[in-house]
Amino acid sequence: MSDVIQIELSNINKHYGSFHALKDINLSIPKGQFVALVGPSGCGKSTLLRSIAGLESISGGTMSIAGEAVNNLPPRKRDVAMVFQSYALYPHMTVLNNLTYSLRIKGTNIKQANKAAEEIAKTIGLSDLLSRYPRELSGGQRQRVAMGRAIIRDPKAFLFDEPLSNLDASLRVHMRKEIRALHDRLGATSVYVTHDQIEAMTMADHVVVLCEGEIVQQGSPLDLYDTPANKFVAGFIGSPAMNFVEGVIGEDGKSVQLNFVHPQKIALNRKLPVGQKVDVGMRPEHLIISNDAANLSAKIAMTEATGPITYYTTDTTPELTLIQQGRGTVSTGDKIGLKIKPEHIYLFDKDTGLVL
Ligand SMILES: Nc1ncnc2c1ncn2[C@@H]1O[C@H](COP(=O)(O)OP(=O)(O)OP(=O)(O)O)[C@@H](O)[C@H]1O
Ligand SMILES: [Mg+2]
After folding, report:
1. What is the CATH number of the domain that holds 146?
2. Which helix (H) or strand (E) is 101 found in, with range?
3. In this predicted structure, what is the pLDDT of residue 1?
4. Residues 165 and 225 occupy one common structural domain
5. Which ligand 1 atom sits nearest the alpha carbon of residue 44?
6. Nearest protein Cα to ligand 1, atom 1
7. Do 261 and 218 sit in the same domain of this protein?
8. What is the pLDDT of residues 294-303, one digit of tens each?
9. Peptide bond before residue 30 is cis, with ω within 30 degrees of 0
10. Ligand 2 midpoint to CA 84 (Å)
């Protein structure tokens, strides 16, 4: 990665009639970076990506790609390549002709175009499939052709919109790695839209979390995981998700009462205003099952063993999710103690959702 900024978005706003779809988006993407845009359905991910591509007009703000202002440039002049979930391959063309299409319409001679396509086919494992038609390919192979078509244009940036969501789980995991490896090999700049936070976390250098048209936080995957700025990010990033329990700061200001149906109190490592209402966040892996100096007590209501990890759900209301590495040491119906270190307790303002 270099310090050169490849894509710069300043105060981007987008309205659809009275609906404010993108709100003051500011984002600097260095050359070589892999950025994931993540957030729930309808938060504006595709709108933002399509705005960068020029497929969507923006209502305000400025945008530049490789140092050039692109606000007024049509999509084909922006020199970016989009890869979609629906591969949008030409069904009546072979893989080879699908790959060379963009070069042929630019007037590159056929021999040169075919040579370029063969080179790319080699790097993405399509060499044996060049004479096939899209209908004769598997989902993963089609996705590769779509990638190849983007690569052959040698674009200033790759824009991906949920490219893997049509694939089954194991192929998705495989293609994730392939796309990231390809990005690295090409020294590309990529913006990757997904609603799957694990995909975002595992593929990207920089994750941008969107909610209702706004960037709510951006940073490296583990920064977002370790230091979420608000309850939304805390709950969105991480699987299984962070546990939340409503609470109120105790009379000493240094403890919090967890408002389970049967309330329990835990100590804090900081002082907060007495009586402040909060949401308490606890990650599953930070709740350690132990009867020795436990902070909390509960009963196991459900056990799910997957082999390498055992998941538990407690009988508390609200319930807690717990995890143990390897085989479980307790079973459904057992009474357990739980230990959590004060530094692992997240507190969020009840009204604003901001971390305290
Ligand atoms: N052409 C349009 N006219 C009006 N509203 C639109 C239009 N396109 C999108 N929207 C609205 O803008 C919001 C953002 O849409 P967008 O497609 O960017 O969401 P997304 O984050 O990509 O969601 P998903 O994960 O479901 O693909 C949604 O509320 C959507 O209904
Ligand atoms: Mg979308």
Report:
1. 3.40.50.300
2. helix 95-106
3. 62
4. yes
5. 18
6. 16
7. no
8. 889 999 999 9
9. no
10. 10
Q: How far is the CA of 44 from the centre of ligand 1 (A)?
A: 6
Sheet holding 264-267, edge to edge: 264-267, 255-258, 243-249, 277-282, 346-349
Phi first, then psi: give them for residue 160, nearest 5 degrees. Answer: -110, 130
Nearest Cα residue to atom 20 of ligand 1: 42
pLDDT at res. 157: 95
- DSSP assignment string, 30-45: ETT-EEEEE-STTSSH
Question: If you take atom 24 of ligand 1, which residue's CA is the nearest one?
Answer: 41
Output the pLDDT for position 2: 66
Nearest residue (CA) to ligand 1, atom 29? 42
Q: Residues lining ligand 1, CB < 6 A?
A: 16, 19, 21, 39, 41-47, 195
Among the bound ligands, the one closest to the CA of 42: 1
**Statement to judge: residues 122 and 270 lie in one domain:** no
Atom 8 in ligand 1: which residue has the minimum CA distance?
47
**Residue 75 CB: number of other CB atoms within 10 A?**
15
Parts of the chain with a pLDDT under 70: 1-2
Residue 101 maps to a domain = yes
CA of 128 to the centre of ligand 2 (A): 33
Burial of 237 (0-12, 13-18, 19+ CB in 10 A): buried
